Amino acid sequence: MLCIFSNSTDPYFNIASEEHLLRKFDDDIFLLYSNQPSVIVGKHQNTVAEIDYHYAQNNGIKIVRRLSGGGAVYHDLGNVNFTFIRNGKEGKLVDFKGFTKPIIELLRTLGIEAKFEGYNSLTINGKKFSGNAEHVFKNRVMHHGTMLFSSNIETLAKVLYVNTNRYTHKGVQSVRASVTNISKHLNEGMPIEEFKLYTFDFMLKHFAGSTYTLSKEDLLIITKLAEEKYSTWDWNFGYSPSYSFTRKTTTKKGEVQITAHVDKGVIAIVNIEGDGLSHIEKEQLTNALSGNSHNPLTIKRIVEETSLNSKDKRSIVDSLL
User: Fold this and answer.
1) Which of 38, 41, 161, 228 is most buried, judged by most C-beta within 10 A?
2) Is-contact 81 32, C-beta < 8 A?
3) Is the pLDDT reported for residue 169 higher than 50?
């Protein structure tokens, strides 16, 4: 098994690394990395329904869609992410319990009794510290998971807390659970960098692996993939399944209700009602929004170009995002 310790904390790069290692390598692989504050959403999720977009934007939290299914997870520099990629036989590739067993054994060496619970979670004293997901590609499977070590739980709760009634859609919805940090359960203090090195060394020995350093060619391919796919709005938001929403807001004149249907990230249908906008303003805004992406930058540009006053523009923009 090739064991790779990523020094990058760029979530676009690290998630792109997983795809490159899965698709372009034949070896079994273990990858360890940490990301800057980010939310990693499942492949089949409606991104805007899983996050507090305004909170993420205001706090510099990046949004990245991964290859695997499952729910949204929060990453920061207090979180350690592990990825196993293995070859196998068709029908026998998916094995959540088997892939997480080494993590349980790792923590046991530190005096922590962790358990596999539910479909894809690891817990300590009934609280979740690791969410896991898998993706199959030909005869290879990628299993990846989180290990909350000293993450900011308050930020996690705020960015992943959303009103489930905000959108109507058929995307996979995350299951919220009480969480805990591994560091709280250690008998002796341990810096996260020491924990990461301890984890990497444990896996290296456990699998009789060999250390692999990404080559210049690997880095070029991964960087390109990160730029052209994983950092794009089309992948992270536009790939979401179709969804609809209805929002109410108030302008200087009165109330406004906006109903829209979004397909492949594009506003396909929009209807604006209420006495908060004139007939001309409603028509202008409806025509401008229709056919454009439900993209914050696009929405802001469109609303800015209307004749509304500054306060009403902010109200309309906030209601659409």
Assistant:
1) 41
2) yes
3) no
Backbone dihedral angles phi then psi of residue 154, each to the nearest 5 degrees: -65, -45
pLDDT band at 173 (very low <50, low <70, confident <90, very high): very low
Q: Using 50, 70 and 90 to split pLDDT, how confident is the model at 175? A: very low
The Cα 245–Cα 32 span in angstroms is 38
| Beta strands 243-250 and 168-169, pairing class | antiparallel
DSSP sequence for 241-304: PPEEEEEEEE-SS-EEEEEEEEETTEEEEEEEESTTS-HHHHHHHHHHHTTSB--HHHHHHHHH
Which residue in this structure is represented by tokens 């349980």? 104
Nearest to 72 by CA among 64, 80, 83: 64
Asked if residue 249 lies in contact with residue 319, where contact means CB atoms within 8 angstroms, the answer is yes
- Assign 3-state DSSP to the chain and report helix, strand, coil percentages, each to 5: 35, 25, 35
251 token code pair: 């302008």
Check whether 245 has a pLDDT greater than 90: no
CA distance 149 to 36: 14
| Residues forming beta bridges with residue 146, ordered by sequence position | 81
Tokens in use for 220? 């070029």
How many residues does the structure list for the chain? 321
